[in-house]
Every structure is written in C-alpha cells, then in structure tokens.
Amino acid sequence: MLSMLVVGYLFLGGVGAGACVVVSAMALLVPRAELAAIRRANTRSGYVTMARVKQPYRRLIAPCYAAAFATVFLGCLFLLLDLGNPVMALALFRYPTATFISAGSYALAACLAVTLLLGIVWGASGVHVPYRLLRAAEWFAAVVGLFVTAYTGLLLSTLGTVPFWTSAWLPVLFVLSSLSGGCALVLIVACVFNTTGAFRQVLRRLVRCDIVVIVLEAAAAAMLLASAFSHPYDVAAQGAQSLLTGAYAAMFLVGFGACGLVAPLVLELNVARWESRFIMLIPAIAALVLVGAFLMRYCIVAAGMHPEVWTVL
Questions:
Q1: Which of 110, 172, 248, 260 has the fewest C-beta atoms lying within 10 Å of its C-beta?
Q2: 46 pairs with which residues across the strands?
Q3: CB-based contacts of 7: which residues, under 8 Å, 6+ apart?
C-alpha cells in the first residue's frame, strides 16, 4: 500500500525532474554569443573557450535550476520519511542491483547534483567555466532528468501484483505530465523573479510546447484506460472504472481532466488573442497544470489500491 508521502514524491520528483529537462533545454538554446565574456585561457594542451553567463540569463536560468533542485530534494525527503529508516536508503548505493529502484536512486542523486552545480554556475557572477563542459553538463541534466520522470512510472508498471499499473502507457503518461509540470514550474519561477518581460518570447514558445505536451498527455491517459479495459485480469478494468464512474471519478475527470488538461489548454491556445494579458495568465496556467499533475498521480495510485481490487487480489 502506497502512502500520501509516496504520492507526494511521485508529484514533486516528477515535476522537479521535468523542470530540470525544460530548463536544460532552454539553457542549451541560449546562443553561444550570448554567453558573454567568452575568452580563451591558456592551458598546457592549448586554448580552451571559457564562458560567463550574462545577467538576464542568471535571473531566469539559475532560479529555475534552483527550483528544480528544491522540488526533487523535497520529493526525495518525502520518500525517505515514508521509508522510515534513511539508513536503508544508503544500502541502495552500497549494494547496487540491476533493478529500477537501484537505477532510480542513482538517477535521483545525479539529478540533484547536476541541478545544484548548474544552478551555481548560471547564478554566480564572474564565474568562468569551459564552454564545452557547461554544454555537456546541460545535456547530462536533460538526459538524467528525463530518466527520473520515467522512473516512477516504470517502477509502478513493474509491480505485477497491481494489474492496473502494468501498462506501457503508465510511464509515458508520467513523463508527459512531468514535462508539463516542469513547464509550469519554470513559468512560476519567471513570474516570481520578474523575468516575464525580458523573456516574453521565450515563455510564449514554452507555452506552445506545453500545448503539444498536454495533447499527448491526454492521449496517453486515454490509452492507459483503454489498455486497462482490455487487460486479461478484470481487476485492471475495475481500477479504470473507479476513475471514470467510481470513487475517484470527480477528482480524475474534473481535477485532472478538466482543470489539469482542458482548462490550461484553452488558456494556452488563446494566448495570442489575449496578448495583453499574457503575463496575468501565466500563474493561472501553471497552477492548473500542477493541480492536475498531483491529482492524476493520486488517482492512479488510488485506483491501483482500490478496496475492490485488493479484495479480488
């Protein structure tokens, strides 16, 4: 049985890792010329290009990495509290195994380390780092963040005792939801640090990307439910039924479907029409996406642990 602490981890870890992917992609798209004060430092092997971040980018990229780190860290803390004995978590690093749990533990640690490092590099003024090393770290952050977004879904889908979770569409849904939540977290950070004006066009492109992600997320949710109804075990269909007409229908259809998918999609599709109100729409879009992301995870977990399902099992 999974507790609310685990649901909190699924939400915070996914959104934080999704933000890591999103902000790393944004950092990689910063033009080489915009990394001000690029200079050449003499080394034994010759010359190496060094880069220093300009002030406007420090105000956006660095806080986004910091928010991603804090969110993933809080999610890991929830997981440790649910475990009850943090010493047991260290055993995953001392005795690694070929399991999703072991691989996910290393991925979480790597995600925390690289987001912290990149947050410092992008946020500290006067810091020069090798340009290629900075780009390599950003690519690594994007890849490891993407793995963490998939990790929780893969972990649930491998629990054979819960037929509703044993679907290839579950990790896909978690990845897409995490990326959308990551976009929402970046939008919130931009509002908090008052960078929406300077990066208006960047944020508009991010909203357009989120439109695609939300549409794919809705399709993945539909495929997950369809796969449950076609599952050879009836308990999988019972779990899906609890989301559509059962105990969790209101939270899933209204909380996730209407608030987390339809409402932000409508707002994002009309951003061009409401250009003058774009900055005002950002908090509403982000809040709706995050609420939907949390309720989706809660409902998916609850449907798998539905009393009728466990009675049959």
A1: 110
A2: 43
A3: 294, 297, 298, 301
